[in-house]
Amino acid sequence: MAIACPVCEAPETRFFMVVKERDSQRQYQRCERCQCTFLLPEQRLPASLEKAEYDQHENEPGDSGYRRFLSRLADPLLARLPAAARGLDFGCGPGPALAAMLREAGHPMALYDPYFAPDTAPLAQQWDFITCTEVVEHLYQPASVFRQLDQLLAPGGWLGIMTCLQTDDARFANWHYRRDPTHVVFYREQTLRYLAGQLGWECEFPARNVALFQKPALALAGTLNTV
């Protein structure tokens, strides 16, 4: 049976790898069109176990080490934002440190997270910028979420994404990022450039594992090519 790509919605993907775990094995597919790698949907964690994994994260807003980590996205994004731009931290998690950093820099921030900030009111507005740090690798339906982000961005707005980009197939099985059971989709730089092209965004990589996208000021919102 053909397995569609969850990122670009190509109708078929190819087998990539089976990784044997202690008490199970996990199968991954590769999309030839956008070059993403993803876990078979039926092997994802149940929602209750996924939430339990997130509850173990210790990402406190005041943690200086965590703030240094987030500054790889915050610094280049802040250099591009006008004063008092309004932002949404999409998938903020239990400790929205990045939102705190951006507020401190003078930008009003809203939060959304299906587990930790489930109020959907921010999803009914448009924003000057959106941040997604350590989020897109968790998405079950990234194509629809990227379309949603396009709708949430005001014309000329910025989207900042941080995720560990996959570069080396030979190291994939033992890669620390793959071993997190909540990580189900893995992107390459080519994947994010493909999505940007389909949505009509500009794309740049100002730091390792950081992508910044800008929605055109006047163009119509893009749609992913599903042909």
CATH T-level fold name:
Rossmann fold
What is the CATH C level class, in words?
Answer: Alpha Beta
Radius of gyration, in Å, reads: 17 Å
- Low-pLDDT parts are none
Structural class: alpha/beta
Q: Fraction of residues in helices? A: 25-40%
Number of strands: 10
Second-tier CATH architecture:
3-Layer(aba) Sandwich
Report strand order across the widest sheet: 5-4-6-7-10-9
Let me know the average pLDDT.
93
**What is the 3D form?**
globular
The H-level CATH homologous superfamily, spelled out, is: Vaccinia Virus protein VP39
Q: What percent of residues are in strands?
A: 15-25%
* SSE series: EEEHHEHEEHEHEHEE
Overall description:
The structure is a single chain. By secondary structure, the chain is of the alpha/beta class. It has a single domain, classed as Vaccinia Virus protein VP39 (Rossmann fold), CATH 3.40.50. Helix content is 26%, strand content 24%. The chain has 6 helices and 10 strands; from the N terminus they run βββααβαββαβαβαββ. A 6-stranded mixed sheet has the order 5-4-6-7-10-9, sandwiched between helices. The two termini are 18 Å apart. The model has no long low-confidence stretch (mean pLDDT 93).
